[in-house]
Request: fold
Amino acid sequence: MTKPKQPRVSIQPVPPAGPGGSAPARLRMRITATAETIVRGGHPWLFADSVKEQNRAAETGELAIIYDRQDKFLAVGLYDAESPIRVRLLHAGKPTTVDRAWWRARLADAVARRAGLFDAGTTGYRLVNGESDGWPGLVLDRYADTLVLKLYSGVWLPRLNELRELLAEVVGSERLVLRLSRNIQERARERFHLTEGQVLSGSTTGEGVVFCETGLRLEADVLRGQKTGFFLDQRENRRRVEGLAAGRAVLNAFSFSGGFSLYAARGGARQVTDLDISAHALAAGDRNFQLNAGNAAVAGCPREAIQADVFEWLAAGATPAFDLVILDPPSLAKRETERAGAVQAYEKLTALGLRRLRPGGTLVSASCSAHVSAEEFYGAVRRAVVRSGRAVTELFTAGHAPDHPATFPEAQYLKAIGLNCS
Reply:
């Protein structure tokens, strides 16, 4: 194929040398016409079956330059030889220089977008939200003086030293913890001697990191906990629950470490009940309430912890004992083939939750299943309410928090709805 004019890019770390020790040719690719349209539309993923040509074999982590049918620069991204997402795009449009200064500016831009979102009462939040912040397959969360870097793609493994230097330079922290998605843990261990939960810099600790969220103290298990140690994405919905809780008996189903219950207690709930199948999660909820014992409203709110399967526990009783029911299950559709079943499960869960809700009570339901759209989720909840025969007033629907932007469809996983039910 004709060799097009190449934009200036940095390909550090340098891939293996070619024959005779010479540097390999820059990785160049052409893609299908459909894929060109998708890239121009801003989607950050290029799948393997969209690649028509590439000039040579390549290794994961290399920069790949994409050209259109007129041999003009289209985009540049990080190549992944071991994923169906063959290129995670970094930039599309006009040619650009991808070097250390470019990376530094991109990180600084992501951090700057959080400026002014939080006051001193919140020291736990997301600094980089993957593709939506221009860092595909990478998440960075802050918990007080600890940064947690979670990698969902192997493209970052050969660049980890560069990442560490940039984070120290732009963000700074006392501790940096590495978390790895399951799909890359074996590769990270065997090729790069990196392990899940590894402390990359700073002191090591087996204890949770305590941070603040709107003035409440919370514990994050940054080494072993789900996601990066805490569900930071539900902050705004926890605040909504706080505003609905005064004088109410609250059921927090799938309670995890009790965040919703803690906010409800501060909001004046007369009692809270945490329901979760995990004893470990319920114990974390105990610790979070203890951390806030100095708050009079929290200290004065009775809390019950029940270890049980939520679906089974809700189905076993029909007594409407609660004025506010929160349903926040883990993802019910981890893949597209589970989508239809998940929609049915959300409808069933809503119906079960309504059986425990007193007349005039409030239901708050959330979904973190990316494969279930907001319309499908809201529809499932509304159908269950209609079938219950209860009149309903919708209070809110909500999506992503401002530090968790979602700029393309696959990133839009979080949705919540609040309803008053007669």
